[in-house]
Specification:
This protein is mainly alpha-helical. It is built from seven helices and no strands.
């Protein structure tokens, strides 16, 4: 009986040592951050081809690198001129909403009255941009290329209007870089609209 209890005690002790040495390693593996890879989604073999297609579609735009970035970042569904334009519009809208927030924050901190007013005007302009982009999405879905061109052109004018308020006062817009990036994206949208059927 003493032999059985000492064997049992030895077995329990060995199990405890094993658990204590193996469990931290298993726990460490469980808590390592998982890197997302599109290869896990069985898309790996189609990604290079999709990249080639996006590059080909964006080649006709004024700013191909900007186009590839915008389309790649928010493409939903199979690539086509329509889905490329929709992706571009969504990317512009995200940036316009962020720029609106920045312009309101800057306006709240501005000490100069003209700067504050220009920033508030830009915030209103960014709201107009979002409205025109929503109309542009509807134009893409209805394949109304003419009205789409009007709405995207209005978006481009809006960014220039925001910058012009500062230029008229002899200063540079603190939002000039964001406006320029969004203007390029909208210009690309116009170029992609030529392929819309």
């Amino acid at each position: 009986m003493a032999h059985l209890s000492s064997s049992l005690l030895l077995l329990v002790a060995a199990s405890a040592v094993m658990i204590l040495t193996v469990a931290p390693q298993a726990d460490a593996r469980r808590h390592k951050p998982h890197r997302f890879s599109l290869h896990h989604q069985n898309l790996g073999s189609s990604l290079p081809f999709l990249g080639v297609q996006i590059n080909g579609l964006c080649r006709s735009t004024d700013y191909p690198d900007v186009c590839v970035s915008a389309v790649s970042s928010s493409l939903l569904g199979p690539l086509s001129p329509a889905t490329a334009i929709i992706s571009t519009i969504r990317a512009i809208d995200l940036k316009a909403k962020a720029a609106r927030g920045v312009s309101l924050q800057l306006a709240a901190r501005a000490t100069d009255k003209m700067t504050r007013e220009n920033l508030k005007n830009c915030a209103e302009i960014y709201s107009d941009v979002s409205f025109n982009l929503a109309k542009s999405l509807a134009n893409v879905r209805s394949r109304d290329r003419n009205v789409l061109n009007v709405n995207l052109s209005a978006v481009i004018d809006d960014f220039e209007t925001c910058n012009d308020g500062f230029v008229e006062n002899g200063t540079r817009s603190p939002l000039a870089a964001q406006n320029d990036a969004m203007r390029k994206m909208a210009s690309n949208g116009l170029a992609l609209a030529e392929k819309l059927k």
